[in-house]
Inverse folding.
């Protein structure tokens, strides 16, 4: 069975467009119609842009048309402030390309996720560190007038804690304060162990239903919110099923030389692989996640990197992150 | 200068109706027209009900017409589960008298306050422990159908962290989910050191602007929300100005025998007392609070007492708090 | 390659004696000399006692001679106070069998682990909830004299945060306060997804080097501490390598019918399996853990269950956990 | 009654030498024999050094002979990273003057206080952010050999949580690891509202019994520990009694013109003032503290400032705090 279908059956969402693209290309051994990919390197980071340009690409990728920018920065894990600053600057730069903000545009930052489940707490932590100005805006001292944009921020919580669809809460707030754009922060699942806490995805398509560590139930995007939604995500977990599957795949490669096994493998009931993996993961199923032991600290650092990047991208007057931090908690 | 005016000038809100009433009565040496007060004792607790019954009483008390029930329970501080359970039961009982819920009515619990400022974090902590059911409601197993009411809960944060009026966020959510009633939890300021973390106020008038540890800016009540709002408050701080003033008052009593001083005192420029106290509290002013050293643990316990009381009051099927806790986090 | 050796090479410790025993028995298809096992059922819980009775058994099991009691309680995850109380009572009962405390014996509770890494924070959290009495002991009111035992508690942190061997810190304290016995609490790794946060192991052999989520470096036992050490552990993680291996094993079982594959498998270079799994887990290796998404709350509840059980086992006068909780934070 | 005696009777400790000196000088209207004071200004900060040079000064000040350096930095409260860095550098510089470390000397950082009581949690939070190297020391890469000093850190907790004298725990660890010097971090009480979270005291006399927010019971100094102890403190609370007393004093000044009152005041039973204040503060007494509402965030920032300053002072190779932070959590 193709990996893409297997993942689907196992409820493993490929949150990162670059990963969905890799899986597809590997299966098809060809480019995917309606999908373009560009790579370049900045400092220590690799930037990969995936563009989904047609309904055909949308269908194949299982993601809406739009731009998905991935910043892979293995050094994000190093606890060095200069490196974190470099990454904040890079995020600000890529974010600005998708934001196209006018001088008077206002922004609502939404921190998705559950602050009581560490690997899902990225969004609320970014909100903690976000420099909000909407309430100060009209009273800001002269010298800041030019620079300070109106920014507000909420952490709506998760359905299990509020009893309310997260999208309902956000929409209710949006209708009250009418932001020009929403920036939604969410923790993602990845299929690559290397990417955990070392990668950032910025997408101008908002949040897709079923995505994120919390498997958000309802989409948070232009259709549901009425304003553009930029999503910023960081992979913090790998679905346990991915590890199980990787192990099996690697074993089978060992046997490639053997035609007899190859036949056996091909003869294997397509559902067996899925059955095996589900058996291994019982009773937690999709709620069983793989994460680094020190995830608590990785989330804390990553949330500061993002908040500083936001401050730079949203407030033109804030040139260096040092200024930016002036307002961060 | 009368205490009531001094407090007003110093920005010291008397959040507890029973205290506002005491101050007035002491000043006027008489009953206050349009205000009634009843006392009774249940177990180890004193229950005082203040009823504001006319615009005249409203004017005098600086609080809207309605019912204010105070449960004074000095033993609330004792870390004993049986005592906490007794208090949860008492809260449930008094709350039910003001709620008048029909079988199909739904409730939105709102935890006001700042989870990053311990003495103001009572509301958000109650929300953490609240048993939400709105999302489960339609799917609840047979045996619960009769008992489980639709309950949702949010902790909207504070203006300084979100950039959005708390009332705006709540109203936005209310318009989406249309609860029958709102129960708002807030940390209060008291003028009585004894009451800190040992007292509960339940009011059917909602949240008054300027009240609470966070000096909520906009009222959260039937006028602003469109549905009835029951407020549950626990005093967690004493305004530092109250202590300063108490000390001065006590000193002056020492001198009561002296006519010469009494003249001096009466001759004292009414603003001097206010000036003295403001000087003492500089530079923090009204943000300088008095609180017990172990406030962190007192808040944790009190939030569990309230959450358990809510579970009993809102879910008829939950007879004992033991069942109630089944759903609490 | 035998599973026991594979785990060893992968640095996967079998913290639970009952699991080490199962693996061995499966490999040898026979009883293990010097190891006895007894099972019985109490309420909803299964209690399994593994006794290692000879150096031969020690050698085979890779664990010191002594008693290992496992309480498997799948319902531990249910958030119901009555169930938690039943489990606290069961823990108290099994613990007492291994403690043999005299009326004047004193106890030091040690919470091992890193409070900044949720799945490793069980020990410090139990210490938070532990009722300490050593400092009150001589001043306790009459009516408690008979019941209150001298109990102290420390959370020494981990090498990475202190720069000091945990065992050194504990030994230093032990030499100052001379407890009769140490009870060490630690988070464990399991090979069984079902056991996470639903199982308790009590051992009178103390902490073995390399065990626990934190892979404790130095043993904490009678040899190193000079006093008996009882270890209480709860599995909170599964090593990712276990999942990878389980998946492979299950796949191979699919092929059991095929002699040709069986030959291939047998012919497989013993190190390949290990290599496969290490490749899958790079770059995190043994620091990559599998844990339920809601581990934060599971740890909070489990730590309260243990603290309440300790209060009952250590303080004869505390019959019901309700009294016990009177002293818990 | 003299303020110094009143404070003593009320159990109000003057933790800051500079404040004890001011009170004395005000009372005596003269210099204090055996006590010297020097002031200078660096950047935005005022540095005051108090030297107690004789037993006579010791007696008068109620503090042991030695050096007490106070850095008053009102801008510490501004949330700006550059300002925090300047303060870290200043702390490092003043600390080095008292430390006199040789190249191979090792340091134990001790974070005093209760991590469950926010205003007392400064010490443990500094430990969280401290760069420990003792365990890495022998394995450090070549290029760091010259720079990395052996540093360890513990947060021993408080008597109420451990049942063990804090000094006993520290002494036990000291005897195991034999540091050259101890640096103890503690939250202090001040009599000046302005100083809260804006002042640092460095003393080469260690911790005096009864000092700190937690009223440490046993001294932590060269006598009890056997090695020199440098204390770093930040005032985080004002004893409520101080506010009460300040208010009274200010009122009395209003009346200075009146001889009749002055007589009355002088005739006032010396104990009355104390009685008044104790009455005002009942039932919490000395556990009633005054603190800014946002103390949680002030403590977080201050702990990072101190940890960065320590990294610079202890590790010669760490020139800028940016490098320093590389190792901080």
């Amino acid at each position: 069975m193709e990996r893409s279908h297997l993942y689907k059956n196992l409820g493993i969402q490929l949150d990162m467009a670059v990963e969905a693209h890799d899986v597809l290309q590997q299966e098809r051994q060809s480019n995917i119609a309606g999908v373009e990919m560009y790579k370049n390197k900045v400092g220590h980071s690799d930037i990969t842009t995936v563009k989904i340009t047609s309904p055909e690409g949308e269908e194949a990728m299982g993601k809406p048309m739009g731009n998905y920018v991935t910043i892979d920065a293995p050094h994000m894990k190093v606890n060095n402030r200069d490196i974190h600053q470099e990454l904040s600057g890079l995020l600000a730069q890529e974010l600005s390309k998708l934001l196209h903000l006018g001088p008077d545009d206002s922004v609502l930052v939404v921190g998705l996720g559950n602050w009581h489940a560490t690997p899902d707490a990225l969004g609320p932590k970014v909100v903690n560190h976000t420099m909000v100005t909407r309430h100060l805006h009209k009273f800001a001292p002269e010298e800041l007038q030019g620079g300070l944009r109106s920014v507000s921020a909420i952490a709506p919580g998760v359905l299990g804690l509020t009893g309310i669809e997260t999208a309902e809460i956000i929409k209710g707030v949006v209708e009250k304060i009418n932001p020009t754009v929403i920036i939604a922060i969410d923790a993602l699942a990845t299929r690559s162990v290397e990417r955990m806490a070392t990668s950032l995805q910025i997408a101008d398509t908002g949040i897709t239903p079923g995505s994120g560590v919390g498997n958000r139930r309802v989409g948070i995007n232009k259709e549901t919110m009425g304003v553009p939604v930029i999503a910023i995500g960081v992979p913090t977990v790998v679905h346990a099923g991915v590890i199980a599957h990787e192990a099996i795949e690697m074993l089978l490669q060992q046997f490639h030389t053997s035609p007899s096994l190859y036949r056996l493998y091909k003869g294997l009931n397509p559902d067996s692989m899925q059955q095996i993996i589900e058996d291994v993961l019982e009773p937690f199923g999709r709620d069983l996640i793989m994460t680094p032991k020190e995830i608590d600290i990785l989330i804390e650092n990553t949330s500061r990197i993002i908040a500083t990047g936001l401050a730079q991208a949203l407030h033109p007057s804030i040139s260096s992150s040092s200024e930016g931090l002036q307002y961060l908690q």
Confidence is low (pLDDT under 50) at residues 320-329 of chain B. The radius of gyration of chain B is 21 Å. The interface with chain A takes residues 116, 127-128, 132-136, 150-157, 159-165, 168-169, 171-177, 329 of chain B (CB under 8 Å).
